[in-house]
Every structure is written in structure tokens, then in C-alpha cells.
Amino acid sequence: MEAASEANSPRPATQSRPVRHVVITGAAGALGRAVASRFAGEGARLALIDRDLQHLQSVFAHPEPDHGGHLLHAADVTSDAAMAPVAAAILDAFGSVDVLVHVAGGFEMGEATHTLSRESWMRMMDLNAWSFIAVAGHFIPAMMFQRSGKVIAVSARAASAGAATMGAYIASKSALQRLVESLSHEVREAGINVNSIAPSILDTPANRASMPSADHTHWVSTGTVARVAAFLASDGAQAMHGQHVVLDGLS
């Protein structure tokens, strides 16, 4: 008897992977857009958060039709009160959240440390550290209930050491990293991975405009950060907890 040809051989049944639900803050910015594009390309359904709904709508004017489009929400990520109804609406629409990517944050050069104003200090701490708590606090309980989830924050390579006139910014990103580590210890037994990405200078239009004479080929592309975020959200990163993936570029 002749062996059956490959074309006629029975094939094992394949199961399509369920659509993942991904929440991205700071979604309308250059990095947020790259992260959103990456996850959309993987077939995820997205909930996109930024402070200006009109801008968010203009950036994401053409949602992915195969997955019912994106959910677009305006919210101040530094406000627990503002995040509460937004998170509730997302969880109501999705039923569950598999991945949270906290891109939102801010940068500013400040005063010398000995003349640092409380306003500058609080602005950086709110944007880069407290926002992580205000956002994650509304999605972690649902992840703990489902016993799975990935939380990814965008930190900065600068968090590792001080630098002149950057005290508030560096302190706030360092605080974010300690929060990532602490949350990781608290939820890893519930099947939740919490990690961060720490890039050096990002190659964005804003950074090119503010540093026109710099060699941007030494910077880190937003696409690179997005690929790392996708990896941290994958099964391949299942054993990673409380880690900060440093992206140096050539800077």
C-alpha cells in the first residue's frame, strides 16, 4: 500500500488563540502609538487612554475592524478618581484585561537639587510614579481574580543614577522602578508578571526638535521599545518578575 501523500494526510486540529485585551496609557504619544500598533498587529483588542480625547480620536481615526475597534478614553492618569470610571468601563466592555502597558509619564529639566521647587518635585512624582499606582490599582484586582496578567511600565535608563538638574525626574523614575519591584513581589503568586522597560533617549519627533544637533542614530527607536513590550507580554517572559529591561541604544 502506498503511503498517503502529505496533502491527504490528516492534520492535527489547530486552535486559535483567544483575542487578548490590552490597556495602554499615554497612547496618543509617539511611543504609545508604536506600542498600540505592535499589539494591534498581533490581533489584540486595545483600550487606549490619553488625557485629550480629541487628540486620541485623531491619532486612532482608523480602528482595527476585525476586533471591534479600539476603546478610546480620556483620563488624567495621575488621578485615582478620574481613572476609576474609565477602568470600570474598560473592564465592563472587555470582561478581563490581559496586559497593561503604562506608557504615560513626563520629562522636564529642573532646577539644581538644592533649589528644587516642591511644584517641580510633585509634577514629576505624579506623572512618573503616582500615575502607575492610580492606573494599576484599578486593573490588578481583575488580574488577580483571573490568576493571570502582564503589567509593563516604561521607566528610564536614567533611573539608575543621579544627574545635574534632573533630580526630580530621575527620582520619580527610580520611584517607579521600586513600585514595579514591590508590586511584582505582591502579585507574582497570583500569576501576574510586573516588569519595566528602561530606555535611554527615545527617537521621537519631540526629542529631535529639542536636540537638533544630536546624533539620533544612537537613540532607541519607539519600535524597539514596542517589541520589548510585546515580549514582556508574551509567554516567553513568564519567568520574569520585577525586572527592568535597559535599552541603551548607542548613547
Give your account of this protein's structure:
The chain is built from eight helices and nine strands. The chain is an alpha/beta fold. Helix 1 packs across helix 8 (222-232), helix 3 runs parallel beside helix 4 (118-136) and helix 4 packs parallel to helix 6.
Considering the chains and any ligands shown, give keywords for the structure.
single chain; alpha/beta; Rossmann fold; 7-stranded parallel β-sheet; two-stranded parallel ribbon; 8 helices; 9 strands; globular; disordered N terminus
Specify Rg, calculated over alpha carbons: 20 Å
Structural class: alpha/beta
Mean pLDDT: 91
Low-confidence stretches: 1-9
Spatial sequence of strands, sheet with the most strands:
3-2-1-4-5-6-9
End-to-end C-alpha gap: 66 Å
Tally of structural domains: 1
Number of helices: 8
Helix content: 25-40%
Shape call: globular
SSE topology string = EHEHEHEHHEHEEHEHE
What secondary-structure arrangement, pairings included, does this model have?
Blueprint: E1 21-25, H1 30-41, E2 45-50, H2 53-59, E3 71-74, H3 80-94, E4 99-102, H4 118-136, H5 140-146, E5 149-154, H6 167-187, E6 192-199, E7 202-203, H7 205-210, E8 220-221, H8 222-232, E9 244-247
Parallel strand pairs: 1-2, 1-4, 2-3, 4-5, 5-6, 6-9, 7-8
Give a quick rundown of the structure.
This protein is α/β, with parallel strands linked by helices and 251 residues long. The protein has helices at 30-41, 53-59, 80-94, 118-136, 140-146, 167-187, 205-210, 222-232; strands at residues 21-25, 45-50, 71-74, 99-102, 149-154, 192-199, 202-203, 220-221, 244-247. It has eight helices and nine strands.
